[in-house]
DNA sequence: ACCTGAACACCGTTCAAGT
DNA sequence: ACCTGAACACCGTTCAAGT
């Protein structure tokens, strides 16, 4: 034992992140623990702390990868469409579809809290910002002559709305409310908002 | 020790819930633990398990009380208003204001997850249902001639939207998006949606 | 230099034993 | 009957010691 050098730091990092993603997908984030992760990759706990600052840091890395996948998925979904309204509605639908397909990963992105004094690093904030930016870009053709401030606000309102639907859907609270189709609800939210916004 | 009978089961229950609420308000739900709670009320851990099924049960009771307060607060905010549009906008604003005033309690209501096989009891679901019902009631005068299904969906869309704003605001992600006023954003979301829905 | 494994200070939950 | 406190099976994190 000690000094195995079977894997580089980078390899261990990648193995740990993949093991974490598997655990989260299959059993949810509550099942994630340093000891389980370490044994899944054939190392001891101590080794994880050589590669990650702590568990919060590891989760941040996992979340960054989830945000990357979500962003890529939304771009893909957009690609075949031309009509501005169709494109913006597709953003909502692909967001919901991603959350539905990967509920545990999606939840972790939005429910993980850093200790109150700690802020996420700038590169991470940029990934979040990119989500809003996607909506802003698609909104522009629909917001004839509106200032960039109005567009920022409309993008935030739309994304908040779709996001709220996702959360209530995942926590089963929309069933309680008597909603039968989450995608219909998303369509109602976005199209009615746009009707009001566009005028 | 043993057999103190200083307090009835009901009294211990109330003491524990109040201690939990204090801890959550001051330090957030991560600071909540059975041992801390027990020592705060002058009993040992074992006693908590005589009064509550487990920690999940205790948190459910805390959340029920939070939902009761939130509901009461929204009714109060509604009382002085007559105009239907003003009333429904006020629902959104008072919801946001409550979340802002009691962020840790509000977060716990919507982020606490029961083990996947366990459902919340019916009396708890009713408290959630009541929130949607409040919106439906206020929506009715504005939805001339629309079926009850359309109203249910519109209420769900509005509440999801406001809820989403709350979440992103509490997790500081709206700052990242460049939003300066959460209340303005709420107003934009609700009034634009209503314009689209009514008109 | 790299990794271990034991230690520390915590958890939630149970239940035999004490009064 | 009521409550304790020790036990069990876990946590995250650190770091002296081994190769």
From TrEMBL, chains A, B:
Keyword Transcription regulation belongs to the record: yes
Gene Ontology molecular functions: DNA-binding transcription factor activity; transcription cis-regulatory region binding
Domain HTH tetR-type: 10-70
Pfam family name, one: TetR_C_33
Keyword DNA-binding included in the entry's annotation: yes
Protein origin, superkingdom: Bacteria
InterPro entries per record: Homeodomain-like_sf (IPR009057), HTH-type_TetR-like_transc_reg (IPR050109), HTH_TetR (IPR001647), MT1864/Rv1816-like_C (IPR025996), Tet_transcr_reg_TetR-rel_C_sf (IPR036271)
DNA-binding region: 33-52
PANTHER family for this protein: HTH-TYPE TRANSCRIPTIONAL REGULATOR RUTR (PTHR30055), TETR-FAMILY REGULATORY PROTEIN (PTHR30055:SF220)
Name by which UniProt lists this protein: TetR/AcrR family transcriptional regulator
Organism whose genome encodes this protein: Thiolapillus brandeum
